[in-house]
Amino acid sequence: MKYLSAILLSASLMLASCNSTVPPQKEDTRSPQQILFEDGNYAMFIHFGLYSKLEGVWKDKIYYGNAEWIMNRSQAAIPVEGYMAEAASFNPSAFDADAIVQLAKDAGMKYIIITAKHHEGFAMFDTAASDFDIVDATPLKRDLMAELAEACHREGLGIGFYYSQFQDWTAPGGGNGPATDPTGRPVSFDEYFRTKCVPQVEELTTKYGEIELIWFDTPGWMQQSYSQELVDIVRKNQPNALVSSRVGNGLGDYETLGDMEVPVANHDGRWEGIDVTQVGWGFSKYDNEWKTPDFIVRTLVSTIARGGTWMLNVGPDSSGRIAEMAAAALRKSGEWVHRHPDAVYGAGPSPWGYALPWGDAVVQGDKIELVVFDWPDDGRLWVPGLKTTVKSARLNGEKKLKFNSRDGWLCIEVPAARPEPFASVIELDLNGAIDVDGTLAVDPSTTTLVPVEFASAEGCSVKKSGWMEKFGEWKTRNVALDFNEGATLTWTMDFKEPGVYNIDLEYLGAENDDWVEWHMSVDGKEALIDQHGATVAYAWYPLGWVSVDSPGIHSFTLTPAKGDIPSARVAAMRITPVNL
């Protein structure tokens, strides 16, 4: 298999060896799969299975949310026999592996992971371990995994397979599946594991050439010995392939964060974020909440800036086609990716460790790529805490920009008009190694978002909170909760300029729509008191104006003083300069 990153690396090494004036580069000992995962930074996820035939509808009832869970008792509770019978009329003949691969390339993605078997137990490949598969149970009789693998190999993309190792809702003995076979004989999980799971993982790792990874999911209560056995199979048949952390029991080669999760602060280690182009993963005909090109570019860059790689899902419909709305958004955002490859491929995490008020930053070698999502209105882009002096600043790799540095702040003069949609990139060439003071800084000309992750907490806790909106549509964020009497959240921040700043607070409260009185102090002196109702959803509430009397470091302390304090959960603060 050919991998673009490995080819570029090989070419650079050859050039170095032919030119004695260029110092030889350190040999990269990573496997092609590691290079693709760590440097490619962008992949396509595909959820495609028998559930795709139903498109989120069963017996004329719409089931909103994750369409791939429609069989489950928490959704339509479709009986095993009735669900399996749907395979007889499942004919996704429009599935075009070449078109999917081309779409991934247009989007700027470097590999594809597709569901070979999801929780429903239906195999999208030709398997000898079961007749419940795309070749034996449907009129299509095509091994779609083989077609996609061949197309990826031919076009230089990586290919990997999702496999639900624990959950199997149609196989006797499978997790959350039938406890007995059709004759009434009890079947254990171990029997399912030996007769279906293990043989199918063997097939996926031996029949389709070199693969990028096996993406296991939902290990449930599987013992470590089961997880280890699956890892050993991958190691035996595909020595260089990666294994996702969702194989369970602390195993795997990298961490997959929660669905739709992007950390606020840089996250250490090898990890990926995953998201969807609709609300759910499998295609739903009534789900028209498509992710925009702007969302795709922002989330891709934000994930890379936090130190991860990103995988974005598409779900083919019952015919096997990817919806044009999703495809159009991928192509449009892909135009940006292809214009700014240094902001994506091989890019490292932000030296600040968090997003900046106007966008984010990634590192490319010894340069910093500033990715500006929200273009400044006053023609000045403020960059805090950069200790290394700047040699040059170029907009979108071409136009030289003027800049100056003072008191730890870099000010870049930028055009008045936004140069391009979604984001513009300013490349900083530095006079030496990158050195950044990561103190949280308040921008002098635009709103600064200050999450609770960056506060010191006394008398309360900062924890991850998760909830579902539509079924399977997970939302997660870190919040401050469990407030005791006198509890405080204190942010220490660097202000470029003294002045008046408006403070907004994002929080939720009690189900009875009670209220909370908040006190805010600046450098230990009471600055404001305000009271607001608190609803069950996170919302922004204005607390008022505060004065900062000098540039430099200041501390802001928030205290819930009265009202329904135990129910309050604080997510973030916003600080906006008031132009007086």
Any key phrases for this structure?
580 residues, alpha/beta, TIM Barrel, Immunoglobulin-like, Jelly Rolls, 3 domains, eight-stranded parallel beta sheet, six-stranded mixed beta sheet, 10 helices, 30 strands, 20% helix
What does this structure look like?
The protein has 580 residues and is an alpha/beta fold. The protein folds into three domains: 4-343, Glycosidases (TIM Barrel, Alpha-Beta Barrel), CATH 3.20.20.80; 359-438, Golgi alpha-mannosidase II (Immunoglobulin-like, Sandwich); 448-577, Jelly Rolls. 20% of the residues lie in helices and 30% in strands. It is built from ten helices and 30 strands. It has helices at 4-18, 32-40, 51-54, 80-85, 97-107, 144-155, 189-204, 224-237, 293-305, 324-339; strands spanning 42-46, 57-58, 61-62, 111-117, 158-164, 213-217, 242-243, 255-256, 271-276, 309-314, 359-364, 367-372, 380-384, 390-395, 399-400, 403-406, 409-413, 424-430, 441-442, 448-451, 456-458, 461-468, 474-481, 488-495, 499-508, 515-522, 525-533, 539-548, 552-563, 569-577. The strands form seven sheets. An eight-stranded parallel beta sheet has the order 7-6-5-4-1-10-9-8. Strands 19, 21, 24, 26, 27 and 29 form a six-stranded mixed beta sheet that branches. Strands 11-12-18-14-15 form a five-stranded antiparallel beta sheet, with helices on one face. Helix 9 links the parallel strand 9 and strand 10. Helix 5 (97-107) packs across helix 6 (144-155), helix 5 (97-107) crosses helix 10 and helix 9 (293-305) packs across helix 10. The longest helix has 16 residues, at 189-204. The chain is globular, with a radius of gyration of 26 Å. The chain starts with a helix and ends with a strand. Residues 1-22 have low confidence and may be disordered.
